[in-house]
Automatic annotation (TrEMBL):
GO terms for biological process: regulation of DNA-templated transcription. Gene3D superfamilies: Met repressor-like (1.10.1220.10). It comes from marine sediment metagenome. This is CopG family transcriptional regulator.
Length: 51
């Protein structure tokens, strides 16, 4: 099972850039955790679907 996140394209590019800068973020589980934390901190409207 995994999570699918729907977000504005601009936000996606910002996150992608941030991940690219963080060499430790090669670990996808860490990337996903960081994304979830970012949504939690900013309290953005986020639809998450399990697959």
């Amino acid at each position: 099972k995994g999570l699918i996140f729907y977000m504005p394209e601009k936000l996606y590019h910002q996150f992608k850039t941030q991940v690219a800068k963080d060499k430790k973020a090669k670990d996808m589980s860490k990337v996903c955790r960081n994304l979830i934390e970012a949504y939690t901190e900013k309290k953005l409207n986020c639809k998450g679907e399990t697959q």
